[in-house]
């Protein structure tokens, strides 16, 4: 046998066995893995199995490439896939020391906290845990303990806004304003109270001439505070820009009114930066666009771009001081732990992630490319009447789909699902509201990694154009 024949046979054999291995993996996945947010029938039909990624491109087990404009599906991979520098930093830390509980000091945790706080004037303490939900749970526990220690247990209620999402655990879900996400998971934790959303495109107020929409929407929070009794409300939690609830930007004047109201009634302002934090909106943090000063900021996802599971609850010194042991109250300090808040690889990855963002100027790039993306989406809006609104900040944008631009009624879920599916078939991954609201899952979202180039943005736009064309002509 010639050597070339031998090589050919070997290659055929290897490919064959490779296919068998992949088929088996898919089979095992269907049999054993229970997928997030996915109905069984969809999983049974077969899900893509992603196997490698670099930059914004991700590849599945069949070798198909996708441009990922969803940052790992859920706004995570801010610095993109395949960052060896982050893996190396984690490797170096893990081979030196992998873990010790955060009740003791750690080198990467200390270094990252210091660097992070440089970006957050007015805040001074970092509390580590592993997920966005958990970071919010810590904030809720702080509020409840402050109420117990300093207000006789009375100032314990936590307000949240319709359409915002704060996580999957029962307390975080109790603070979530999304009907379908909550459905069938009650009863919920007492003491969480909803107030109306601020989505100006789906306006819900008749405005008097002297009032802006933003001020009117923020006053809806004050109305709820007054109804509940200001001395019973300890905190309000808000996303700076609502993410999963539909990429909702606060209208002009909204945040100033929210901040004023919180100060007036001594209510702590918790800012959920789990999605917006670490550059996503073209600033280190979403709240920094709006000239406000939160008391507690939570973050996860982009903190280590998905290379490690890490989240932070960051507070002012005043909040920290309220939760210290005092004479006669030995239980008076924050007695909370998150085991994996002691994983040393998390802050090591977060530190490398932050250094990449700084060195490569990704915050500026995010702003510039975000503007390019929005400008392109405006053109698509002019072309397809089904696009009622496009909006966003930085590389965090949404498209609201309506049956017609005047009455703004949401399209059926199937249309939103259909456009996202067409994009996927054309090699583009985007996000969408996914069984979040009753009859209003009509928003597509895009959040490519902050490294996106002009060419990436143009490719996203041209695939979206094609997907809209196919969907609206029913091809
Ligand atoms: C704004 C916001 N907060 C909190 C969370 C919960 O984060 P995790 O899924 O890491 O618990 C999410 C998740 O998508 C989120 O979008």
Automatic annotation (TrEMBL):
Pfam families per UniProt: Aminotran_3
Swiss-Prot/TrEMBL keywords: Aminotransferase, Pyridoxal phosphate, Transferase
Cofactor field: pyridoxal 5'-phosphate
UniProt cross-references to PROSITE patterns, sorted A to Z: AA_TRANSFER_CLASS_3
Keyword flag Transferase: yes
Molecular function GO terms recorded: pyridoxal phosphate binding; transaminase activity
InterPro entries per UniProt: Aminotrans_3, Aminotrans_3_PPA_site, PyrdxlP-dep_Trfase, PyrdxlP-dep_Trfase_major, PyrdxlP-dep_Trfase_small
Domain of life according to the entry: Bacteria
Gene3D superfamilies assigned to the protein according to its UniProt record, in alphabetical order: Aspartate Aminotransferase, domain 1 (3.90.1150.10), Type I PLP-dependent aspartate aminotransferase-like (Major domain) (3.40.640.10)
Matching PANTHER family: AMINOTRANSFERASE (PTHR43094), AMINOTRANSFERASE CLASS-III (PTHR43094:SF1)
Family classification: Belongs to the class-III pyridoxal-phosphate-dependent aminotransferase family.
Name of the protein in its database record: Probable adenosylmethionine-8-amino-7-oxononanoate aminotransferase
UniProt lineage: Bacteria, Pseudomonadati, Pseudomonadota, Gammaproteobacteria, Oceanospirillales
């Amino acid at each position: 046998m010639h050597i070339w024949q031998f090589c050919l046979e070997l290659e055929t054999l290897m490919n064959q066995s490779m296919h068998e291995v992949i088929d088996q993996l898919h089979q095992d996945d269907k049999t054993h893995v229970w997928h997030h947010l996915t109905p069984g029938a969809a999983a049974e039909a077969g899900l893509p199995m992603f196997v490698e990624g670099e930059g914004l491109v991700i590849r599945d087990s069949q070798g198909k490439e996708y441009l990922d404009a969803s940052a790992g599906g859920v706004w995570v991979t801010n610095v993109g896939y395949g960052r060896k520098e982050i893996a190396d930093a984690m490797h170096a830390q893990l081979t030196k020391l992998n873990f010790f509980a955060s009740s003791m000091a750690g080198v990467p945790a200390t270094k990252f906290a210091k660097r992070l706080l440089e970006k957050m004037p007015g805040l001074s303490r970092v509390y580590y845990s592993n997920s966005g939900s958990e970071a919010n749970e810590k904030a809720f526990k702080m509020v409840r303990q402050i109420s117990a220690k300093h207000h006789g247990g009375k100032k314990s209620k936590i307000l949240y806004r319709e359409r915002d999402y704060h996580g999957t655990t029962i307390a975080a879900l109790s603070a979530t304003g999304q009907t379908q996400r909550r459905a069938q998971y009650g009863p919920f934790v007492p003491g969480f109270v909803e107030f109306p959303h601020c989505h100006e495109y789906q306006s819900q107020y008749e405005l008097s001439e002297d009032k802006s929409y933003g001020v009117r929407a923020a006053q809806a929070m004050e109305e709820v505070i007054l109804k509940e009794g200001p001395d019973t409300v300890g905190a309000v939690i808000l996303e700076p820009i609502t993410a999963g609830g539909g990429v909702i930007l606060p209208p002009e004047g909204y945040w100033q009114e929210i901040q004023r109201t919180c100060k007036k009634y001594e209510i702590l302002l918790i800012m959920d930066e789990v999605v917006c934090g670490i550059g996503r909106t073209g600033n280190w943090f979403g709240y920094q666009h709006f000239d406000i000063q939160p008391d507690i900021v939570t973050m996860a996802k982009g903190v280590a771009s998905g290379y490690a599971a890490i989240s932070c609850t960051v507070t002012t010194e005043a909040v920290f001081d309220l939760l210290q042991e005092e004479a006669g109250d030995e239980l008076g300090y924050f007695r909370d732990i998150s085991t994996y808040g002691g994983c040393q690889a998390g802050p090591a990855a977060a530190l490398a992630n932050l250094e990449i963002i700084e060195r490569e100027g990704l915050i500026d790039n995010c702003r510039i490319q975000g503007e390019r993306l929005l400008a392109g989406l405006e053109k698509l809006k002019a072309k397809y009447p089904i696009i009622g609104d496009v909006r966003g900040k930085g590389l965090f944008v949404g498209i609201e789909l309506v049956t017609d631009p005047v009455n703004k009624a949401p399209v059926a879920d199937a249309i939103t699902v259909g456009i996202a599916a067409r994009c996927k078939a054309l090699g583009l991954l985007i996000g969408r509201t996914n069984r979040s609201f009753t009859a209003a899952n009509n928003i597509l979202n895009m959040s490519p990694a902050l490294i996106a180039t002009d060419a990436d943005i143009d490719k996203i736009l041209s695939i979206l154009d094609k997907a809209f064309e196919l969907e609206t002509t029913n091809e």
